[in-house]
User: Which sequence fits this backbone?
């Protein structure tokens, strides 16, 4: 398979995610809930296995909701009239979403309940000293927020991934530069990191993928998330 075909397939997949998010109210709810849970997880001393289980439970709900949407749209193309088999197909796909949602609630209960106690200060200290977890969450939040802004303010030019109101490459590169500045605490390293981030943004403008304003929006988003995670929380 050619590299161009792989890129196109990736673009189509991202377009599908953003289209579903923009048109489906339930998916937007799950999206907001996912971001909230990920932010909330910062205040708890999760092991890697526990955090992986949490992410899997969240992803499972979103995936089943998207499959449910795809099944409903396919049935609506075939027939607009009531048909018992069509009803069964829609009910079964909706049932899959319900099972995934119940599973996520149970996982959340098992992971969070015992931790909601007076030792919160100790947990906060552990999270603040865990740079790897903070970095992962910061980059994950930047990615999710970028997808959300692209879906919300899509201008119907190009694909959802290539272009959009917010430059994802700029957001991630400036977030990484902000994280490096906090971890290194060195002016030269900070300058080099932000210099590379600026070059990434400039390449998006030069390639006519994003406008100057879109790159600036991405830079602001990435920087703010990095500051929020490492300065306020960490």
Assistant:
């Amino acid at each position: 398979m050619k590299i161009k075909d792989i890129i196109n397939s990736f673009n189509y997949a991202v377009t599908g995610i953003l289209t579903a998010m923009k048109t489906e109210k339930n998916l937007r709810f799950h999206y907001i809930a996912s971001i909230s849970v990920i932010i909330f997880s910062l205040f708890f001393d999760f092991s890697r296995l526990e955090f992986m289980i949490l992410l899997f439970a969240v992803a499972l709900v979103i995936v089943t909701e998207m499959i449910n949407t795809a099944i409903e749209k396919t049935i609506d193309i075939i027939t607009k009239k009531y048909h018992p088999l069509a009803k069964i197909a829609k009910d079964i796909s909706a049932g899959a979403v319900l099972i995934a949602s119940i599973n996520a609630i149970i996982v959340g209960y098992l992971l969070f309940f015992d931790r909601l106690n007076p030792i919160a200060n100790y947990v906060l200290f552990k999270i603040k000293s865990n740079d790897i977890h903070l970095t992962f969450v910061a980059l994950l939040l930047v990615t999710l927020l970028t997808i959300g802004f692209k879906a919300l303010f899509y201008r119907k030019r190009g694909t959802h991934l290539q272009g959009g109101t917010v430059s994802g490459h700029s957001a991630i590169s400036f977030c990484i530069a902000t994280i490096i500045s906090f971890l290194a605490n060195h002016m030269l390293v900070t300058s080099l990191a932000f210099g590379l981030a600026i070059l990434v943004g400039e390449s998006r403008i030069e390639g006519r993928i994003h406008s100057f304003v879109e790159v600036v929006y991405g830079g602001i988003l990435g920087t703010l998330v990095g500051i929020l995670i490492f300065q306020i929380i960490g």
DSSP finds nine helices and no strands in the chain. Residues 153 and 165 are 6 Å apart (CA to CA).
